[in-house]
């Protein structure tokens, strides 16, 4: 898989957004982010039902040496979280766009995606 | 402008991720902290710690000077032996922790923390003023330091030196050995909780030594290791890090280093304060903690008791790469130092439950 899949949207804070429908997205952190963090040993996620706002911290990803916030790429309501990361945080390293996904969020509509970066823009950002 | 060790040109070759560590451009990791940590526990790792400071103390009054500025008993050393020690302020707070090498009559070498080199030199020179024959020479620039650590360290190193390593006990050294033909001071010391050696060499020979060691050790699982693994390794073994477990505001007795403070050796700087600490009991204790709730304690996170009273803070914390548990060291009010005591660590705004546990978290040779 490409390290910056073209079907996803991105933030400057290295989160990705997969549009599942007009009112639902899936989010996670990018290949670049997991590589920078190193061996991920702990992931803290929001609770389903939590109302979250774009650019606000909704959890954390920790490697052996560092703690890093997860900033929500969108505003909405948390529909589901990837509980498997509680016991297998290393999935974020192994498969950041697949089994390492973090949450699914209900959004009001496509306008919630305004301001997100396209793959080419994100790729340029991480150089 | 960040300082670089003589080995800097090799970092990129080994895929190192380089960080600013107290003004030094140093490798935090090569293949990954976890892998490097495991390699040192099970095989061997090679660290570039050339940023450490080396200071020669020479002269007729060198011994009496060192007895005055350090807490351990320098008179107990025989040539070829070194000791862990501390330099304290009159308050009992710590200037730095260090190794004191006894090279021979009137000749010593101190090994000090990189971030403290200037402060330590100023302190040493100030104290030396009242002593007659003491010369203080900073040889940090021309000295490189490689640490070869892990259970396979001896067999790797022995293939490159005639010096009889099996006879070299812990905290002993050969001042004039050769490793791969390169003159080196070979010391059986380290900062990982494993067996191992520290090799002091002239800076201009260090690249060659690094390459020879890695090539020789590859078959025994030797890998280059960075500061990240060095920190998790020393942490599991409960070896203190200046700036976290030790500082001008933390005394060696609070940090649990009382055995390196020889109150009966005669006067030394900080003795009065430390004696008082010992008689009255130090107000704080460094304890091991293990999280009961989900979370990882980190340096400076505040610690509370069950009633919400703040009782201290975490000095170092991580997920132990060996044990896979979320553990930390915390400096707490002594009333909470008992094993099994429940306390709370504030992590991202939430007070999460933890308990006081035995340290070190890892001991060589013990079943895990």
Automatic annotation (TrEMBL), chain A:
Subunit comment: The glycine cleavage system is composed of four proteins: P, T, L and H.
N6-lipoyllysine: modified positions: 65
Lineage, opening ranks: Bacteria, Bacillati, Bacillota, Bacilli, Bacillales
Record-linked SUPFAM superfamilies: Single hybrid motif
Superkingdom, taxonomy of origin: Bacteria
Cofactor(s) recorded in Swiss-Prot or TrEMBL: (R)-lipoate
Function, as annotated: Is also involved in protein lipoylation via its role as an octanoyl/lipoyl carrier protein intermediate.
Protein name: Glycine cleavage system H protein
Cofactor binding mode and count: Binds 1 lipoyl cofactor covalently.
UniProt-listed HAMAP family: GcvH (MF_00272)
Organism: Gordoniibacillus kamchatkensis
TrEMBL record, chain B:
Any single Pfam family the record assigns to this protein: GCV_T_C
NCBIfam families, sorted: gcvT, PRK00389.1
Subunit note: The glycine cleavage system is composed of four proteins: P, T, L and H.
Gene3D superfamilies xref list: Aminomethyltransferase beta-barrel domains, Aminomethyltransferase fragment, Probable tRNA modification gtpase trme, domain 1
This protein's record includes keyword Transferase: yes
Name the record gives this protein: Aminomethyltransferase
Catalytic activity: N(6)-[(R)-S(8)-aminomethyldihydrolipoyl]-L-lysyl-[protein] + (6S)-5,6,7,8-tetrahydrofolate = N(6)-[(R)-dihydrolipoyl]-L-lysyl-[protein] + (6R)-5,10-methylene-5,6,7,8-tetrahydrofolate + NH4(+)
EC number: 2.1.2.10
Limits of the Aminomethyltransferase C-terminal domain: 284-363
The keyword Membrane appears for this protein: no
Coiled coil: none
Entry function: The glycine cleavage system catalyzes the degradation of glycine.
Family listed: Belongs to the GcvT family.
Domain GCVT N-terminal: 7-265
């Amino acid at each position: 898989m490409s390290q910056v899949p073209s079907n996803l949207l991105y933030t400057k804070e290295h989160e990705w957004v997969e549009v599942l429908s007009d009112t639902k997205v899936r989010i996670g952190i990018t290949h670049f982010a997991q590589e920078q963090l190193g061996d991920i040993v702990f992931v803290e996620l929001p609770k389903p039902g939590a109302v979250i706002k774009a650019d606000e911290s909704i959890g954390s990803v920790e490697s052996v040496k560092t703690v890093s916030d997860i900033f929500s790429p969108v505003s909405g309501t948390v529909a589901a979280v990837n509980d498997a990361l509680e016991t297998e945080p290393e999935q974020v390293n192994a498969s950041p766009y697949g089994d390492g996904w973090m949450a699914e969020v209900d959004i009001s509509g496509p306008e919630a995606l305004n301001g997100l970066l396209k793959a080419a823009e994100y790729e340029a950002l991480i150089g | 402008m960040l300082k670089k060790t003589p080995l800097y040109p090799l970092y990129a070759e080994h895929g190192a991720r380089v960080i600013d560590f107290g003004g030094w451009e140093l490798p935090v990791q090569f293949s990954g902290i976890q892998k490097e940590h495991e390699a040192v526990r099970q095989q061997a790792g090679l660290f570039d710690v050339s940023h450490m400071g080396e200071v020669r103390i020479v002269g007729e009054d060198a011994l009496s000077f060192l007895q005055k500025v350090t807490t351990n008993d320098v008179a107990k050393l025989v040539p070829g032996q070194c000791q862990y020690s501390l330099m304290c302020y009159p308050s009992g707070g710590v200037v730095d922790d260090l190794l004191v090498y006894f090279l021979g009559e009137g000749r010593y070498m101190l090994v000090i923390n990189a971030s403290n080199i200037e402060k330590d030199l100023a302190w040493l020179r100030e104290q030396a003023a009242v002593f007659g024959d003491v010369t203080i020479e900073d040889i940090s620039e021309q000295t490189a330091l490689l640490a070869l650590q892990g259970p396979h360290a001896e067999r790797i190193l022995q293939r490159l030196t005639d010096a009889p390593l099996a006879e070299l006990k812990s905290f002993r050294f050969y001042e004039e050995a050769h490793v791969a033909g390169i003159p080196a001071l070979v010391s059986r010391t380290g900062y990982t909780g494993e067996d191992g050696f520290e090799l002091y060499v002239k800076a201009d020979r260090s690249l060659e030594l690094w390459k020879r060691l890695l090539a020789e050790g590859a078959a025994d699982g030797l890998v280059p290791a960075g500061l990240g693994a060095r920190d998790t390794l020393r942490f599991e073994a409960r070896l203190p890090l200046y700036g976290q477990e030790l500082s001008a505001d933390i005394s060696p007795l609070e940090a649990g280093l009382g055995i390196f403070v020889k109150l009966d050796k005669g006067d030394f700087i900080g003795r009065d304060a430390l004696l008082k600490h010992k008689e009255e009991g130090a107000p704080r204790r460094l304890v091991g903690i293990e999280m009961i709730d989900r979370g990882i304690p980190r340096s400076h996170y505040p610690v509370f008791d069950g009633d919400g009273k703040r009782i201290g803070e975490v000095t170092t914390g991580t997920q132990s790469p060996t044990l896979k548990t979320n553990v930390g060291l915390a400096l707490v009010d002594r009333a909470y130092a008992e094993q099994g005591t429940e306390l709370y660590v504030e992590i991202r705004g939430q007070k999460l439950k933890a308990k006081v546990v035995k340290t070190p978290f890892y001991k060589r040779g013990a079943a895990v």
